[in-house]
């Protein structure tokens, strides 16, 4: 029986080790995709105005200032010309654009970049948050810094590839998010009404 119990303990440990090595292999493969010919564009997504920073595959900043651009086609074109100019200046020929999938504000930009033949990857916001102190030993938040952190995270292989969904699935996701929001608002309002009743009609 002791032997069986020992095996039952060792099997989960072995599975965790296999999963860990598998994740490491996948991360290494993503890192190896990024070469000296790449520029990495990190974008901090917002509702109206996004912020972007450019680094090389080692995380070195290639521009003196960040770029702010609107969440419109004109803004997307401004971004496109900006990193194309930076790539020409630094003799780079490949692009990798990383962003957080924040709400629904990133969809139009990501799809537009794909239409231009630009590779787009997504970064987990939790990973970005954990790596903010790496740049300046401060957890403070600002859009240019967040864009730089996103580029750093991409250069270390912590990203997933983005492939656009069919429009019907995007609509379903948007409706689910809207329903979740209004359900939360309804619950909050109901709790406030109960509180008012308890206060004024004890």
TrEMBL record:
Domain Transposase IS110-like N-terminal: 41-202
Annotated protein name in UniProt: Transposase
Signal peptide: none
InterPro entries in the record: Transp_IS110-like_N (IPR002525), Transpos_IS110 (IPR047650)
A GO MF term: DNA binding
Example of a GO biological process term: DNA transposition
């Amino acid at each position: 029986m002791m032997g069986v119990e020992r095996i039952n303990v060792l099997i989960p440990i072995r599975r965790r080790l296999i999963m860990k090595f598998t994740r490491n292999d996948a991360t290494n493969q993503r890192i190896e995709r990024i070469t000296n010919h790449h520029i990495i564009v990190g974008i901090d997504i917002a509702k109206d105005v996004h912020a972007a920073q450019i680094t090389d595959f080692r995380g070195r900043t290639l521009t003196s200032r960040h770029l702010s651009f609107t969440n419109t086609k004109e803004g997307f074109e401004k971004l496109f010309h900006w990193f194309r100019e930076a790539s020409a200046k630094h003799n780079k020929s490949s692009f990798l654009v990383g962003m957080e999938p924040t709400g629904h504000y990133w969809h139009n930009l990501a799809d537009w970049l794909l239409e231009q033949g630009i590779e787009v990857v997504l970064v987990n916001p939790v990973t970005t948050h954990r790596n903010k102190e790496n740049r300046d030993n401060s957890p403070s938040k600002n859009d240019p810094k967040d864009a730089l952190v996103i580029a750093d995270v991409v250069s270390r292989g912590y990203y997933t590839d983005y492939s656009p969904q069919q429009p019907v699935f995007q609509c379903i996701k948007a409706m689910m998010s809207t329903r979740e929001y209004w359900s939360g608002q309804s619950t909050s309002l109901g709790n406030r009404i109960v509180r008012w009743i308890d206060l004024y009609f004890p």
